[in-house]
Design a protein that fits this description.
Layout lengths: L2 H17 L26 H8 L10 H9 L3 H18 L64 H6 L4 E6 L13 H6 L15 H4 L2 E6 L7 H17 L3 E6 L5 H11 L5 E6 L18 H7 L8 E6 L6 H10 L2 E4 H7 L1 H14 L3 E7 L21 H14 L1 E8 L10 H21 L10 H4 L9
Parallel strand pairs: 1-2, 1-3, 3-8, 4-5, 4-7, 5-6, 7-8
Length: 470
């Protein structure tokens, strides 16, 4: 590679970073060169001319217009060198067998090879106990002590879930390798240590902690050096929870976890379709990433493998530069019901919320809610791994989550991508817990047989004293 080529590669990379990558439409992929530039192209070889008129340059420039600007300001010799450097740069993108690793090498001879996910043998338990959840509290009204999700008792095995007739098992998954700001591993413990889960719901006046059998199911181990191996174990653990009859509530961790979790819930009943409502700023359906699974590819992989169908996926709160016209067209072709913040601004939140609820109710009986905290505006939740301004507010999110969980049959819930290091206050963790409590409240309403749409207790809506005469 020549010094000039290396210089162009640097410039092209800088251009892509500044402009967000190539965003050309399908009509721009191939195009003849502008007639006014013909005199500058006489020195090009047929192969170079073919490259210039093909899709290759659009991997380096965001549009044909930007490419034309570069050609116009160069001499014929400089154009020839530019095209040669572009061809070298595009060729450098390609996978090189023997040079590029297809996977991280593993050492299966290591005596600790699978140590991260090996369960403790029952024979090592210090105390024998009958299956079932158990408390780690010392006092009757303990407010401190060992933190657990919702202050709930602990369960460690599927047998505990069955014996305790557990409705909801809340588990942390401290996976962090593909989160935006790389602190998602601390999300579960930050939320454990914060109040707000299984508290009385103001709208319905229902206490989910008094209605549901809730347990803290501990953390699922991950391999901190291999995303794929960690996801495989998460799949197995979620499968156990669902098979035991409990609804998994999963606290991440980055959003790559959506892939094994949704797949596990589906695989318990593979013949039944599964509906997914995904809240997030990002569509997470990147189709051309260098890696096949990350937080950016989780949705795409679920669709590509047929785990869920596009028509059974609803996405809420999309915004940000990752979403381009080509992606929206692809999502429409897949049948995905997507709702952007532009739609919220245009239609109003109430109309969008009712549309989302109608779509969820018209879909499969079983519904999985995947909640990326990035859907909330950074004003109210700054600690998102990939935060984007202009999101939903809690006053908008909470009623929709509660209604989804009350008016549909929830078989799984996850809240992902909380990065506590980005918010040194308690606000982000508290608000994330509040979202989870909204779903628990909805599930409790459904268990109690509350069937009224958008149910709210009458005493919270009207003090009953009338309006003073003016």
């Amino acid at each position: 590679m020549t010094k000039t080529t290396r210089g162009f590669l640097f410039a092209a990379t800088f251009c892509l970073l500044q402009l967000g990558g190539a965003t050309a439409s399908a009509d721009d992929v191939t195009a003849p060169v502008e007639p006014s530039l013909e005199h500058k192209l006489k020195a090009l070889s047929p192969k170079q001319r073919e490259f210039l008129e093909g899709p290759g340059p659009l991997r380096l420039f965001p549009s044909r217009g930007k490419l034309v600007e570069e050609l116009e300001r160069r001499s014929p010799d400089e154009v020839r060198q530019l095209v040669a450097d572009m061809m070298a740069a595009v060729a450098a993108f390609a996978y090189r067998p023997g040079e590029d690793m297809g996977a991280i090498p593993l050492n299966p001879e290591s005596p600790q090879f699978n140590s991260f996910k090996v369960l403790k043998p029952r024979a090592l338990d210090e105390l024998e106990r009958a299956p079932g959840p158990f408390s780690v509290k010392r006092y009757i009204y303990e407010r401190g002590g060992i933190p657990t999700f919702a202050g709930a008792p602990v369960a460690l095995t599927p047998e505990d879930l069955v014996a305790g007739a557990v409705d909801v098992a809340i588990a942390g998954i401290p996976q962090n390798m593909s989160s935006g700001k790389r602190d998602a591993r601390n999300g579960p413990n930050a939320m454990r240590a914060m109040h707000g889960i299984a508290d009385r719901d103001l709208y319905s006046m229902i206490d989910p902690g008094a209605v549901l059998n809730i347990v803290d199911y501990g953390d699922f181990a991950v391999d901190r050096m291999s995303l794929e191996r960690g996801l495989d174990h998460a799949y197995d653990m979620v499968l156990d929870v669902v098979a035991a009859g409990a609804v998994p509530f999963l606290v991440g961790g980055d959003h790559s976890l959506m892939y094994p979790s949704v797949k596990a819930v589906r695989d318990v009943r593979p013949g039944e379709p599964l509906g997914v409502v995904h809240f997030g700023a990002h569509h997470n359906a990147e189709r051309d990433g260098s890696h096949t699974i990350s937080d950016r590819q989780a949705v795409y992989r679920l669709l590509a493998e047929g785990v869920i169908e596009g028509k059974h996926l609803i996405q809420v709160g999309l915004r940000g530069p990752q979403l381009d016209l080509e992606t929206l067209e692809w999502m429409r072709e897949q049948g995905i019901r997507y709702h952007t913040m532009a739609e919220v601004a245009y239609r109003g939140w109430d109309a969008v919320m009712e549309r989302v609820l109608a779509e969820a109710k018209a879909g499969p009986d079983r519904v999985y809610v995947s909640f990326d905290v990035s859907v909330i505006d950074p004003v109210e939740l700054a600690a998102a791994g990939r935060a984007v301004p202009g999101g939903l507010m809690l006053r908008e999110v909470i009623p929709l989550v509660r209604r989804l969980c009350a008016e549909t049959r929830i078989v799984g819930f996850e809240i992902m991508d909380l990065a506590p290091m980005l918010d040194l206050s308690y606000r982000s963790a508290m608000n994330a817990n509040y979202v989870m409590n909204a779903c628990l409240s909805g599930i409790a309403m459904r268990k109690m047989g509350v069937t009224e749409e958008n149910y709210m207790h009458p005493l919270v809506l009207d003090h009953g004293q009338g309006t003073p005469a003016e």
